[in-house]
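in:
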């Protein structure tokens, strides 16, 4: 079984095992995936979620989908099925394009083994990228702690190890600071409607990191009162101009952070940057099922709902993007593209 303190996805013979994030934090349960349908379902219902983990799950989904047949038609159908699961996190399309390009150039008989190997590689790269993000973000938390004695960090959604193969993105610097013995405290917002903040509070608790759980709308007051030194969030897609799509509610935190002169950082691997996407307006924003807002349970059945799962934070509100290659002003992402 998976080591639930560190990894979200693992191979198990011809199967892939994931932590079922829809059951956390109440229960630690696993899903054993043996078919591409299982991977597509896991991504769609958020059993596997968070941009980097979605990418890795999709990569393993391709491997599962080519188990018995690996001709061109099957490869195309499997990639199409996985691509249709969620629109915003670009890691999904990135991983599928990577697999498709590699596999299409091989003979069908070679594709199955190559798909497993490439999925394994994507997972390993994610672990390494996130570890590097942790080291690059560490100094930001270190500076905050040096200034105030204890770094007060605010995050949103879950961009910890649960959202990746391991290590996390936004929480990677927090874990690096924890390992370095730096005093810190994390404000965790609940992240309605899917409550990914529960996951963040749970994983920080498991690691022994001091944290407090707050309602989403408490962020403005905390920032106004000077109770936050730095905001660090993850990303689902970063446009070429540095605009960032992340879980809905991120933009409001960025606005409040700017109003109170608190630096707002985004942590993400380069696989989350979509250099073909010119700006935030071009990022597809997922709209999820109305039921997620629970209107049927509060006597509002039939009321029209718009359940926007993500929002866009403009580049001008972002102090820096923490990647595995260093911290970049959002306007300078092109440097990464060229590299
Ligand atoms: O809908 P989710 O739970 O997949 O959304 C996740 C987020 O928005 C995360 O903040 C983002 O993917 C970064 S994860 C390292």
């Amino acid at each position: 079984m998976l080591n639930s303190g560190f990894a979200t996805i693992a191979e198990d013979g011809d199967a892939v095992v994931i932590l079922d994030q829809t059951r956390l934090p109440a229960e630690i349960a696993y899903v054993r995936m043996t078919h591409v349908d299982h991977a597509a379902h896991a991504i769609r219902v958020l059993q596997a979620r968070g941009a980097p983990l979605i990418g890795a799950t999709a990569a393993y989904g391709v491997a599962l989908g080519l188990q018995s047949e690996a001709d061109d038609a099957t490869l195309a159908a499997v990639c199409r099925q996985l691509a249709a699961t969620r629109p915003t996190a670009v890691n999904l399309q990135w991983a599928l394009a990577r697999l498709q390009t590699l596999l299409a150039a091989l003979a069908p008989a070679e594709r199955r083994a190559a798909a497993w190997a490439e999925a394994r590689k994507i997972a390993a790269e994610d672990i390494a990228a996130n570890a590097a993000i942790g080291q690059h973000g560490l100094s930001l938390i270190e500076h905050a702690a040096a200034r105030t004695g204890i770094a007060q960090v605010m995050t949103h959604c879950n961009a910890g190890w649960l959202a990746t193969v391991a290590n996390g993105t936004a929480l990677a610097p927090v874990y690096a600071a924890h390992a370095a013995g730096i005093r810190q405290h994390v404000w965790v917002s609940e992240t309605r409607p899917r409550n990914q903040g529960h996951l963040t509070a749970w994983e920080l608790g498991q690691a022994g990191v001091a944290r407090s759980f707050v309602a989403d709308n408490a962020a403005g007051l905390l920032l106004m009162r000077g109770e936050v030194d730095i905001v660090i969030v993850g990303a689902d897609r970063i446009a070429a101009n540095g605009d960032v799509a992340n879980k809905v509610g991120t933009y409001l935190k960025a606005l409040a952070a700017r109003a109170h002169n608190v630096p707002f950082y985004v942590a993400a691997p380069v696989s989350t940057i979509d250099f073909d996407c010119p700006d935030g307006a071009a990022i597809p924003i997922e709209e999820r099922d109305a039921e997620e807002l629970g209107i049927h349970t509060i006597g509002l059945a039939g009321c029209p709902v718009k359940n926007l799962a993500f929002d866009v934070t403009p580049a001008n509100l972002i102090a820096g993007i923490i990647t595995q290659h260093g911290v970049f002003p959002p306007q300078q992402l092109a440097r990464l593209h060229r590299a």
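note: The longest strand covers residues 184-189.
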